[in-house]
Amino acid sequence: MKKQRLSLLLPIILLLALIFAPRAQAVCPVCTVAVGAGLGISRWLGIDDVITGLWIGGLATSSGMWFSAWADKKGVESKLLKFLAGLSFHFLLVPTLYLLNISGDPLNTLWGIDKIILGLILGAVAFFLSVITDQKIKAANNGQVLVYYQKVILPMLYLSILSFVFYLITN
Questions:
Q1: Measured between alpha carbons, how far is 65 from 71 in angstroms, rounded to an integer?
Q2: How many whole angstroms separate alpha carbon 104 and alpha carbon 139?
Q3: What CA–CA distance (Å, rounded) separates 137 from 146?
Q4: Is the CB of residue 92 less than 8 Å from the CB of residue 100?
């Protein structure tokens, strides 16, 4: 019953997010929704927790960068303040994962680290590196993207490749 409600609710949430999303920003809301949808679907399908953690890390990093772009528009000039605010998305997420018993099982580890936390860290790094890659591609191409939706494709590509690597490691 819970899975049926989720399968009915997820498309509605995605549709509303697409309808009410503001124009593209540093990391657009549509990208954030796409990462969130990937997370929800992977947990629903029973995919390994390290892979789920990768997408959680990508979502948290995306949200932090999105918040930083919003702060820029509001006139916040302190890079440290924006960085700490963006990082708070990660710091608030970890205790929540433990409180919800999603994380913290001593038998659910890889290399001695909780699978979700390991995935969260690696997913955050992968997402951040994809944003840097996007910026470098644009800088080398006179401020132009090489392909449409490059800003969406690169994070999804990085997280998907890392997911495949960890699929091979954990299976």
A1: 10
A2: 42
A3: 7
A4: no
Q: Is residue 101 over pLDDT 70?
A: yes
- pLDDT, average across residues 70-81: 79
Lowest mean per-residue pLDDT among 13-22, 36-45, 88-97: 13-22
> pLDDT grade, residue 28 (50/70/90)?
low
In degrees, to the nearest 5, what angle opens at C-alpha 169 toward C-alphas 122 and 39? Answer: 50
Nearest CA among 50, 35, 54, 47 for reference residue 123: 54
CA distances from 63 to 46, 56, 58, 128 (A): 24, 10, 8, 11
Residue 111 CA to residue 9 CA, distance in Å, equals 36
Beta strands in 35-142 (DSSP E): 109-110, 113-114
Tokens matching residue 171: 């299976």
- Using a 10 angstrom Cβ sphere, with 0-12 exposed, 13-18 middle and 19 or more buried, the burial of residue 111 is exposed
